[in-house]
Write a structure and sequence with these properties.
The complex is a heterodimer of chains A (71) and B (462).
Chain A: H1 3-19, H2 25-30, H3 32-45
Chain B: H1 8-17, H2 22-40, E1 43-46, H3 48-63, E2 75-79, H4 106-113, E3 117-122, H5 156-163, E4 169-174, H6 180-186, E5 189-192, E6 212-217, H7 220-230, H8 248-251, E7 260-263, H9 265-268, H10 273-288, E8 292-295, H11 301-327, H12 333-342, H13 347-368, E9 373-377, H14 403-407, E10 411-418, E11 424-430, H15 436-449
Parallel strand pairs in B: 2-3, 7-8, 7-9
Antiparallel strand pairs in B: 1-3, 4-6, 5-6, 5-10, 9-11, 10-11
Helix pairs in contact in B: 2-3, 7-15, 11-12, 11-13
The chains are: A mainly alpha (71), B alpha/beta (462).
């Protein structure tokens, strides 16, 4: 497991814990790929200024800032 | 012709002319279910006493000159998420195994008032959410065309019962494709009306801003009969819209000449060759009938898919939050997974999806400014084997239905023929808001052009 995978796994664990659900490690691990798939889709939803009536969302991110995939 | 193959209107004619009685039809249907449903598992609960009571009442009313319309004395059944007064409504779940509602859902009431004969309650994915499930209190409904393959979900029992020729009409529900997907994989007609067209009061929710009730049926005409009964404003459903309900059956006679129909090819370019051929065949039938069929471009399919998944999962988790915290293990394995992954979504994710939804609605409405309908795929492939099912919400899903849950437009899956392996192929027809008549007219033209109603249905033997 590389660093990114470990980080996604830890993020998933923390979010489940925050939600208050009791989930075994085995069940959590079996759902990791589903969570990773959902994260890919979430990335499509962020930073879409099209429907924003204010101009504030049109301020471009600094070039060095990587796109956020999670809020 | 066996009465199991007669349309609702034909059965109604037979009943009015005294060629048969509702009691006789119902008794034979109950016999067929008793003999064959052990192979298909379409029903969770069969209600023979209620059915025969409904049938005798219909016969008696008809004898005294009362005519309640096309469904009077004709059998139907309800997906087991529709509340039925005094009849167990389980949502196919351990959590509601003993739930007996004290009142009918609005749709159940309308079917009762239309004089229909209730045969029972039909299998679904647990809470119409996750499936297929193999660890639930009732068996999975199987696909009558090939029992090793998935019916699709969640209106699985509804389509299985229609394809098995137990009945012609069953109301289903569609939040991400739960009417149209199963319809496509079982050779049935599935219509998701415009969001707000049909009351959802008394139907267990999956995702409030996406849930839509609509008919599943053997033919377009049967679906029009079903929608006529179901449609109408309900001030007690916050999503219901007060718009006039047209005569859907009358609209079927109008044909498609002059209609302008767009094809978003970029949605379905990855489809199986036979699915693609089915869409082209449908397009050609419509052109020959005088419609203009041309390519259109919609936003990237992945945006619709992501938007639907986030809204559906967030709202679904809100519905189930208390039970997920208190008794997660009582859900089937698939739903446990959905609820766990869904619980990771944030308010910001949901708001982002809602903002994107507005953009997508505007983009589709812009295409409808100069098109009467869209023709696209319902699914990218025929019914998959039960041991090879992808997450219907995930990026690998073959479902092409979610865009029109996001936008709320009416959409119908229409059979166009069989694959070389004998599995049904379907296309999806989408219309502007509240233009179900246009969608039905196009479906009827395709049904006629493909001779679908003459296609032999699956032969089920005990």
């Amino acid at each position: 497991m590389n660093e990114t995978d470990r980080s996604v796994r830890e993020e998933f664990r923390l979010l489940i814990e925050r939600a208050g659900l009791t989930v075994s490690e085995a069940q959590r691990d079996s759902l990791l790929s589903t969570y990773a798939d959902l994260k890919k889709q979430l990335a499509l939803l962020h930073r879409r200024p099209g429907a924003e009536p204010s101009l504030v969302f049109h301020v471009p991110a600094p070039p060095s800032t990587p796109p956020r995939t999670r809020s | 012709m066996s009465f199991f193959d007669k349309s609702i209107l034909e059965l109604g004619r037979d009943l009015r002319q005294g060629a048969t009685s509702s009691e006789a039809i119902t008794a034979q249907t109950l016999e067929r279910i008793a003999s064959l449903d052990g192979e298909i598992h379409a029903f969770i609960t069969v209600t023979p006493e209620r059915a025969l009571e409904d049938a005798r009442r219909a016969d008696s009313e008809r004898a005294s000159g009362i005519d309640r319309g096309p469904l009077h004395g004709v059998p139907y059944a309800l997906k087991d998420i529709y509340d039925t007064d005094g009849i167990r409504t389980t949502c196919h779940s351990r959590l509601l195994i003993d739930n007996v509602p004290a009142a009918d859902s609005v749709v159940a009431r309308r079917f009762r008032e239309a004089g229909g004969v209730l045969l029972g309650k039909l299998a679904t994915n647990e809470f119409a959410f996750g499936g297929p499930g193999f660890d639930l209190p009732f068996p999975l409904a199987l696909n009558p065309w090939d029992r090793r393959r998935f019916t699709g979900g969640s209106s699985s029992g509804s389509v299985a019962a229609i394809a098995a020729r137990f009945l012609r009409l069953a109301p289903g529900s569609d939040t991400g494709g739960s009417i149209r997907g199963p319809a496509s994989w079982t050779g049935t007609v599935g219509l998701k009306p415009t969001y707000g067209r049909v009351s959802r009061r008394g139907v267990f929710p999956l995702a409030w801003s996406l849930d839509t009730c609509g008919p599943l049926a053997r033919s377009v005409e049967d679906a029009a009969v079903g929608l006529q009964i179901m449609a109408g404003h309900d001030p007690e459903d916050s999503g219901s819209v007060d718009v006039a309900v047209p005569d859907y059956l009358a609209a079927l006679a109008q044909g498609v000449e002059g209609l302008r129909i767009g094809m978003p090819r970029h949605f379905f370019e990855q489809a199986d060759a036979e699915v693609l051929a089915g869409i082209e065949r449908a397009a050609e039938i419509l052109r020959r009938a005088g419609a203009i069929v041309e390519d259109v471009v919609l936003p990237d399919f992945a945006l619709f898919s992501a938007c639907c998944r986030v809204i559906l999962m967030a709202e679904g988790c809100a519905v189930h939050r208390d039970n997920a915290l208190a008794r997660l293990a009582d859900y089937g394995e698939v739903n446990q997974g959905r609820l766990i992954v869904g619980a990771t979504l944030s308010a910001v994710d949901y708001i982002d999806a809602c903002r994107l939804r507005r953009e997508l609605v505007d983009a589709v409405n812009a295409v409808f400014a100069d098109h009467d309908a869209l023709l696209t795929a319902t699914t990218l492939e025929t019914a998959p084997p039960l041991d090879d099912i992808s997450n219907p919400m995930g990026t690998a899903s073959p479902m092409q239905t979610t865009p029109f849950n996001v936008t709320g437009h009416p959409a119908l899956s229409q059979p166009v023929g069989l694959s070389r392996h004998g599995l049904p192929l379907g296309v999806q027809i989408v219309g502007p808001a509240f233009a179900e008549t246009t969608v039905l007219r196009i479906a009827r033209e395709i049904e006629r052009g493909t001779n679908w109603l003459e296609t032999p249905q699956p032969d089920i033997r005990p």
